[in-house]
Write a structure and sequence with these properties.
The protein is mainly beta. It has no helices and 11 strands. Strands 2, 4, 5, 6, 9, 10 and 11 form a 7-stranded mixed beta sheet that branches. A hairpin with an 8-residue loop joins strand 9 and strand 10.
């Protein structure tokens, strides 16, 4: 059964940085070979796209993330990470990773990790 798990969230001061990680299970999936997206959600709002890394490692970012966030693969740990710099209070949200590891238009979500940016 496919499972995604996020980690790395927490409380950070405005202007600070945090790196989130997403691991896809089972470990037979090669995190270096699947596309993964990061989304975020705040209460009473729709989940919104943050960043994407494709099979060929092409990347896309939401306008709010451009220049501050970087999505990248950690080949050694088989994770897809989201490095977030220059954080703002409005970046406070639960961050989720999302993937369609089989390429069958069947997407899986992790449980989310909370990022809180204090002003």
């Amino acid at each position: 059964q496919v499972q995604l798990a996020e980690s790395g969230g927490g409380l950070v001061q405005a202007g600070g940085s945090v790196t989130l990680s997403c691991v896809v299970s089972p470990s037979t999936f090669n995190a270096n070979a699947i596309a993964v997206s990061w989304y975020r959600q705040v209460p009473e709002k729709q989940r919104e796209f943050v960043a994407f890394i494709g099979v060929d490692s092409n990347t896309k970012y939401a306008d709010s993330a451009k220049g501050r966030f970087t999505i990248f693969r950690d080949n050694a740990r088989k994770t897809v990470n989201l490095q977030m710099n220059s954080l703002k209070p409005e970046d406070t949200a639960v961050y989720y990773c999302n993937s369609d590891p089989y390429g069958l238009q069947c997407y899986y979500w992790g449980q989310g990790t909370q990022v809180t940016v204090a002003s």
